[in-house]
Design goal:
Blueprint lengths: L1 H30 L4 H30 L1
Helix pairs in contact: 1-2
């Protein structure tokens, strides 16, 4: 049970980090003069990139640990 709780907490932390980076990217794009749809696309791209990076790092660390 403890392992499941740790996995869920780490997953929530990763998603929150991805959301924060996406919000920052969207805000910076909007401040740079991008339209709302363009800023939203940049935020979505940043969110997807952050989650992909987290998955890749998790896979690499799982290979090293086991």
């Amino acid at each position: 049970m403890t392992r499941l709780v740790v996995v869920l907490l780490v997953t929530a932390l990763i998603v929150m980090f991805a959301l924060l980076t996406a919000a920052a990217a969207g805000l910076l794009a909007r401040l740079d003069g991008a339209t709302y749809p363009a800023a939203l696309m940049r935020a979505a791209t940043t969110f997807a990139t952050a989650l992909t990076l987290a998955a890749a790092l998790t896979g690499a660390l799982a290979q090293i640990v086991s």
